[in-house]
Prior knowledge:
This protein is of the alpha/beta class. It is built from 11 helices and 13 strands.
Amino acid sequence: MIQNTHPASYTLTRPDDWHIHLRDGTALATVVPHTAAQFARAIVMPNLRPPVTTASEAMSYKARIKAAVPAGMSFEPLMTLYLTDNMSPDEILRAKDAGVVALKLYPAGATTNSDAGVTDIRKTYKTLEAMQRAGLLLLVHGEVTSPEIDLFDREAVFIDQQLIPLRKDFPELKIVMEHITTREASLYVASETSHLGATITAQHLLYNRNAIFTGGVRPHYYCLPVLKRETHRLALMDAATSGNPRFFLGTDSAPHAAHLKEHAVGCAGCYTAHAAMELYAAAFDSVGKMDKLEGFASFFGADFYGLPRNTDTITLKRETWTTPESFPFGDALLKPLAGGETLAWQMI
C-alpha cells in the first residue's frame, strides 16, 4: 500500500512550542491567544526589560501570561531564567522548587534584549554545576558576537569555540541549541549524545536569505540568527523531517511593533505564532513528509524535557486562506511573517 504523503487533512497530537517570545504588558493580549490556540505548552523566553533572573520574577511573569489566556483555552507556560555572569547557584534551587525548567544563555549583544547576557561563559560555571545537579536545562543562543566573525559564520564558530568545550565540562547537562540555522549545527546535533537537542523555526525551514531582499529589504523576514544560504535550509529540512528525536519544534516567534521592525535600525525577529502549525505544515508538505510532523511538533520536545506527551489533538486541513496583514499590538501594529499571503494549510 502506497502511503499518501500529501493528505487532505492531518490530525496530530497537540503540539508544544519549545521556544517562544511573549513579551509583557499589553502585548500579551495579542500574542498569548495566538500561541494558546495551537500549543498546549510553550517555553517562554526571559529576555524582558529588565530580564527575568529570579524564580519569583518568573512566577510573577507566569501569572501575567496565564491571565491573558482566553477563557476555555488550556495553555501552560513553561518558565525560564535569564543566565547572567553573576547569577547565584542558590537561585537554581529556588528555580527548581518553583517549577522553572531551564535557563537561557544569551551571549551579550547577540540578539534582542541580550545586553545583560553572558560575557564569559566561565563566569557561569558554578551556576551550571548547580543546574546539572538539579536537572534544569540550558538553552543556548548559539552565536558568537565577536565583530571580526562574519555574521553568517557565527553559529559554526560558537559550536567550535564554546559549545564543544562546555559539553566536555558538563557532560550530564542537557543543552538545547535554539533555532539552529546551519548545516554545521544540524550535523553536530545529529552526531552527538542524547543530552543535546535543537529547535528549528518555520522560517528557517521555508526561506533562505534571499527572502530578506526580494523586491527590496523585507524587515519582517529579518531575525537572529539570520536566514542562511539554500544549502543550510535544505540541511535543516533534512534534520526536521528525519525522525531524529533530538530535533523539535521551536518557533522563536518574536513580536515587535511594526514601526520598530520597519525602522532605520530594524528589530530582529519574525512573528509566526498566528499561523505556526500552518507554516510548519507547508514546510513538511513541500518534501512529502507530513507523516514526520507529529514527532517533530508533538513528541520529541516533550521527551527531551522529560515531560508527558499531550493527549488531545489538533487537525490541519489542506485549505487555502489568506493570513492577516497585521494585528493590534498595544498602541501599535504587529505585522506577522507572510502577512497578507496565501497559505495552503489551516488549523480547524
